[in-house]
Design a protein that fits this description.
Blueprint (H helix, E strand, L loop, with lengths): L1 H11 L17 H6 L11 H4 L10 E13 L2 E5 L4 E5 L4 E13 L2 E18 L4 H14 L5 E23 L4 E23 L8 E23 L4 E8 L5 E9 L9 E3 L4 E10 L4 E11 L7 E4 L2 E4 H5 L2 E11 L4 E12 L4 H4 L5 H4 L4 E11 L4 E12 L3 E4 L9 E5 L1 E12 L1
Antiparallel strand pairs: 1-4, 1-22, 2-3, 2-21, 4-5, 5-6, 6-7, 7-8, 8-9, 8-10, 9-12, 10-11, 12-13, 13-16, 14-15, 16-17, 17-18, 18-19, 19-22, 20-21
Length: 431
């Protein structure tokens, strides 16, 4: 019986769990949470990741930033397979997404480093199952050929973390122009736990649980280079390029009744390259504005393949590239207090969104074009210590319909929603 059910799983399931998300996070610090745009920053430790060449504009000495973000996410999807409408919604939040940045400047040379979550950082938790466990259950019933008549106890839980270490330097080529070069090391881990139980056997067979408990790990290295140019004493422009990081994930499987994650098997999921630009300007002694654009080269990353009605296709080609636009303003109300607000618009250039959603994890995280509204403040306790606090609300298209291509040639639509609220808090030290 188990061998029959294994083949049912493999008909439509992906062999690896994907983030089903733009892999590269844009929110890498509490300062981003309170502004929505950080590429052109030149006065904070998070310049280490957003504008590393701009580290040369920090005051001489040490600059250390410690922060954390918490995500309150509610992705959901609903559908009707002929047995009434079913709605599955994320349960639980992601409370701990930390970062640590440090930079030291002496004259024209600055050294810097950081430890942060560059991708993932979230858990997809569906204690009552998802469309994927539903399809697994239905196909398993078909494969059982009447040995079971129903299923229950579905569940799906998966998480992904791309822990990143960064080390580099910046150098002032002139009073107005600086450059940077750095190396980043990624250590990625994906974990999935999912299952269902076949029940109500007319042959009086015991309930048959079908479960997957597996994780995959990968590590890789990439480079990051940047330039920062001070057009004048109030305005700077920057550019940053992050190379693709090759990642070969290797499975470590504890339980795999479905035959989806053979222990020791490898699967490719590169971390995409990024090109980021930005302009920041002090309009007055109290007001600074920033505008930015970033492009994520997802199509050039190797994410393996999936199956659609057109046969085997590249997963990253289905996902397409991603464009991100940001705008922020900061207003200094006093010597100690600064308020900020901004927005970021993320556009996913899918070539076939429904095709991309055939992979495990896509319906569970509901990625897509979205808009964030950000606000917060920075408080200077003294000249050496600053506190950042921010909040962001992220919006997706409401009630988006998407065909469940796993069921082709049947045309069954799913309705997708997503919602997220983020808070960030951090403290910066200079000495």
């Amino acid at each position: 019986m188990k061998k029959i059910l294994l083949s049912a799983f493999c008909v439509f399931s992906a062999v690896t769990f994907s983030n089903a998300q733009i892999d590269n996070l844009t929110n890498l610090s509490p300062e981003w949470v309170r502004t929505g745009a950080r590429n052109a920053t030149i006065n904070s430790p998070d310049a280490v990741v957003y504008n590393p060449a701009g580290v040369s504009k920090l005051e001489e000495g040490w600059h250390i930033g410690l922060g954390n973000q918490s995500f309150f996410r509610k992705p959901s999807h609903r559908y009707n397979l002929g047995f009434g409408e079913v709605k599955n919604e994320q349960d639980g939040n992601d409370m701990f997404v930390p970062n640590l940045y440090a930079a030291y400047r002496k004259g024209k040379i600055s050294g810097f480093g950081g430890v942060y979550i560059a991708g993932g950082g979230a858990t997809a938790n569906y204690p009552n199952g998802t469309i994927n466990t539903e399809l697994i259950s239905m196909m398993s019933l078909m494969a059982a050929e009447g040995a079971y008549e129903a299923y229950h106890k579905q569940y799906f839980k998966a998480n992904s973390y791309y822990l990143t270490s960064l080390l580099g330097f910046s150098y002032s080529l002139s009073e107005n122009l600086s450059m940077s070069a750095s190396v980043r090391m990624l250590s990625a881990k994906n974990k999935i736990e999912a299952g269902t139980t076949l029940t109500m056997s007319p042959l009086e067979l015991p309930d048959l649980p079908i479960a997957v408990d597996a994780e995959s790990k990968a590590s890789g290295m990439g480079v990051m280079i940047g330039l920062n140019h001070m057009i004048n004493e109030k305005t700077n422009i920057m550019i940053r390029y992050e190379s693709k990081v090759k990642l070969d994930f290797k499975n470590k499987t504890e339980k795999d009744d479905a035959g989806l994650f053979p222990d020791g098997e490898k699967a490719r999921r590169d971390f995409p390259a990024v090109l980021a630009t930005g302009i920041g300007s002090n309009l007055s002694d109290k007001i600074r504005v920033s505008i930015e654009y970033s492009f994520y080269f997802q199509k050039n990353a190797d994410w393996g393949t999936t199956y659609t009605e057109n046969g085997e296709v590249s997963l990253s080609k289905l996902a397409g590239d991603v464009s991100v636009f940001g705008l922020a303003a900061e207003y200094k109300t006093s010597e100690k207090f600064l308020i900020s607000a901004g927005t970021m618009y993320t556009v996913n250039h899918y070539s076939d969104k429904a095709g991309y959603y055939t992979t495990a994890g896509a319906f569970e995280t509901a990625p897509g074009t979205n808009l964030s509204l950000n606000a917060g403040f920075c408080y200077s306790i003294n000249a050496q210590v600053k506190v950042n606090l921010g909040a962001a609300k992220i919006f997706w298209k409401k009630d988006e319909q998407l065909l469940i291509k796993n069921l082709l040639p049947a045309e069954v639509p799913a309705v997708i929603n997503n919602d997220m609220f983020a808070v960030g808090a951090g403290i910066n030290f200079s000495f």
